[in-house]
Amino acid sequence: MNSNFVFIVSALALTAVVVLVLMWSLLRTRGNTQPNLAQANQQVYRQQLKDLEKEHAQGGLSPADFELARTELLGRLLEDTAQADAPDAIKPPRTLVSAMVLAVFLPVVAMSTYMWLGEVEGLNPALASAEDKDKHPDLEAMAASLAHKLESDSGNAQRWVMLGRTYRALNQYDKALPAYQKALTLGADDDIALERAEVLAQHHGGDFKGEPWAVIRQVLAKNARHFSGLLLAGSASYAQGDYKTAIRYWQQARDQLEEGDEEIQGIEIALNKAREKAGEPLVASRPVLASPHAASSTAAPAAAAAAGAGVAGRVSVDSALKASISPTDVVFVYATPTDGQKMPLAIVRKMAADLPFDFVLDDSTAMSPDRKLSSQAQVVLKVRISKTGEAMTRAGDWIGVIDAVAVGARHVRLVVNRQAP
């Protein structure tokens, strides 16, 4: 049966019951005198005594509790009925007119109140099915604004990337892909190419076969040490169940990190998960040689934050939660205004295999050129780990939040430490 029909019928039935009860209460009081107060009290106490006896018979009250309650009830009865009051003459109220007015007035007021304050749109199945989309009107508006601007400025590669990321946040991969492709036609960029390959895999339900893998191999063919390319290749291999290949790629990425780099721990977690799946022995983390990549990865956030236009720090996971995180989970690090707006000012997206990692949020990672992080004095800093890679927070996602972080702050420690309800 249609749930909306059930709701409407139930609402009408409940309204009718309330009206009937109130009309009966009004009409039954028509008369010339009101009953003796002592008699009314006796009737109430008799009913309460029956309720006590019924509860005792059903085992809800012990004998001792029953006797105590019964004695207390009888004592109150004697006290309340010690003085009898004489009946007072009253004038017959105009209850019939009142009841008839009530019968019309109450349903009208109830329906008007619901139409004013209620979620009337929820009765429309078409609108209800679009609930998730309606939760992000700002993203929809931003996508429309970017698309409109690109009609007259189609040579702006950065805006095409932003449009692609916005559509990706809305899970509209079919629209995100052409935007990324347009950006790539305006200028080759391996990082954007990898990002598009990842979106294409998401569009195919997490399947990297075909073009996504071809892009990853092209990037690695040009630079076999491309850090993001190695991580994505490992994640793609892991997603396809090719754990030995995932180990090989992730190991190559790990070997680029300098001794003591905290990112080693996150990659080792991913490596050991892959080793466990492949039936290989687990390996403890060990020191590796320093590399130019590690030096640049740690210096970039500090330099950006020093400029005073962003927030820089490191994302990590509470040690008690590490076993719950998969290397292929998606990590979102983003900043929102302190006034409660939900749309991010800036956002960084990585894989859980990268954890822990340094991050920087500034105007270069903005979701919209019209909403800059540098325009804020403080922001709310958030991290979310998603199993599905969806833009919206889902129950079961792992999150961490820091309120009121000053723009320009350095060395912020953002920890994933709880689960979204």
What are the key terms here?
421 residues; alpha+beta; Serine Threonine Protein Phosphatase 5, Tetratricopeptide repeat; Immunoglobulin-like; five-stranded antiparallel sheet; 15 helices; 52% helix; 12% strand; elongated
Please tell me the CATH architecture of the largest domain by its name.
Alpha Horseshoe
Shape: elongated
Q: What average pLDDT do the residues reach? A: 75
Overall domain count: 3
Q: With helices defined by DSSP (H or I, 4 residues minimum), what is the helix count?
A: 15
What share of residues is helical? 40-55%
What is the strand content?
5-15%
Broad structural category: alpha+beta
Q: What name does the CATH topology of the largest domain carry?
A: Serine Threonine Protein Phosphatase 5, Tetratricopeptide repeat
Detailed description of the structure:
The protein folds into 3 domains: 3-129, no CATH class; 137-278, Serine Threonine Protein Phosphatase 5, Tetratricopeptide repeat, CATH 1.25.40; 295-419, Immunoglobulin-like (Sandwich), CATH 2.60.40. It is built from 15 helices and 8 strands. The chain has helices at residues 3-27, 37-57, 63-80, 95-117, 125-129, 131-134, 137-152, 157-169, 173-186, 190-203, 211-222, 227-239, 243-254, 263-278, 292-306, and strands at residues 311-317, 330-337, 346-351, 357-361, 378-386, 398-406, 412-416, 418-419.
